Amino acid sequence: MSAEDVPGQFPGTAPTVALGTVDDHVERILSRLEPLQPYEQQLLDSLGLSVCEDIVSPMALPAFDNSAMDGYAVCFADVVGASRDQPVYLPVVGEIAAGQTKIFAMSPGTTVRIMTGAPVPYGADAVVPVEWTDGGEVQVRIHRAPTEGQHIRRKGEDVEPGDVLLEDGTVLGPRQLGLLASVGRAQVLSRPRPRVVVISTGAELREPGSPLGPDSIYDANSYMLAAQARAAGAITYRVGIVSDDPDDFASTLSDQLVRADMVVTSGGVSKGQYDVVKDVLTRAGTVEFGEVAMQPGKPQGFGVIGEDAVPIFTLPGNPVSAYVSFEVFCVPAIRRMMGRTPYLRPPVRALTSHGMSSPAGKRQFVRAQFEVDRGGAHVTPIAAHGSHLVGDLSDANALIVVPEDVTSVAPGTHVQVLVLDRDF
Ligand code: AMP
Ligand code: MG
């Protein structure tokens, strides 16, 4: 049977290929991708990136014994028993501020004024907070006794030289960056963010902010997909709109490849006559098009293009389909390139307020509102199903996942939910 004879397709369009289940397609994608090469990056540029070495501390933290309070360094034995009724008086023989470089020793029977973070002088084994004294500068009256060692932060009590601070694969957040800075690291070997080029196709599309003709629509997808890519950790280049002209599309794509670790297109992959993405990339021969057993998001294409074999995802044009496809296929791809695990968003269990039906043999992603209250996790499906309904999409904060073999879900039962906009 030639492609011309395939029922339900326009003449001359390629026959439909089955790409299997969502899991098959995810597997196909992940197996084609490698994590990006790590390099030494400045600490702040590494926020959210995964570290690619075990980081061993070159030093102790604290680096030296230092005072936890503003007060007076003392020999514990001198102040034992100090009280309001029986205060202890000591001569003040010096002062040490934080950042002080000279080494200071003191003898029993004396005291030294000391500031928070300043090195504790040799000979001292406790610090009396200023609040327990009269604050004297020549002689101090101490009316309360510390315990032995009190208010001294000991060298190495937090970190010892040689301690493993962060293991290979740790994602760097503010606290980890603070730790690296604390041990003097200015740079860290981390995997970069993938550069994701986002292109919308369609002769009907117009740029937001420009006038809209009677037969045109605004390009929602390139903004939405670029935002999804950025939220997943990528650097994004939103190219915007390319018409349905094959030469335009081919030349835009080849221009963009130099700066892309990944390309995402939307539109032009269904069974229409002007499906430019499918046209051009089918000729390239390195991108596979077909149908994944899912709803929404059935028409998918994935492959590599150009000399550097840059991965390309060709997502369907309907905004809801494009959104769900990006969440399900492109987010794991970005995470794999960044070396961030898990690649897939872990589903959570929730009680659904309403029932729903679902096509046999397809995994359905139902837009929904998810909420946790004292009764536990609840989810409410958003009524309509159309994959053009961007208003509904914006109201959703979750996707209910109805498995391939389930055709009907009863109200008040547990379902699996992907809670969106959360880090994982
Ligand atoms: P296509 O896959 O190109 O046939 O597009 C399917 C549907 O999605 C059509 O109704 C398009 O007008 C719409 N569509 C395609 N691209 C976009 C976009 N970038 N923004 C909003 N709607 C789009
Ligand atoms: Mg189109």
Query: In CATH's first tier, which class of the largest domain applies?
Result: Alpha Beta
Mean pLDDT: 93
Query: Helix share of residues?
Result: 10-25%
Q: Unreliable segments (pLDDT under 50, ≥5 consecutive)? A: 1-6
CATH homology group of the largest domain: MoaB/Mog-like domain
Family: Belongs to the MoeA family.
Domain MoaB/Mog: 197-336
Pfam families: MoCF_biosynth, MoeA_C, MoeA_N
Catalytic activity: adenylyl-molybdopterin + molybdate = Mo-molybdopterin + AMP + H(+)
Describe the protein's architecture and organization.
By secondary structure, the chain is α/β, with parallel strands linked by helices. It folds into four domains: 3-36 and 192-338, Molybdenum Cofactor Biosythetic Enzyme, Chain A, CATH 3.40.980.10; 41-60 and 164-190, Molybdopterin biosynthesis moea protein, domain 2 (Alpha-Beta Complex); 66-153, Beta Complex (Molybdopterin biosynthesis moeA protein, domain 3); 348-417, Beta-clip, CATH 2.40.340.10. It contains eight helices and 27 strands. A hairpin with a 2-residue loop joins β23 and β24. α1 (22-32) packs across α7 (319-338), α4 (221-231) packs parallel to α7 (319-338) and α5 crosses α6 (276-284). It is elongated. Residues 1-6 have low confidence and may be disordered. Adenosine monophosphate (AMP) binds next to α4.
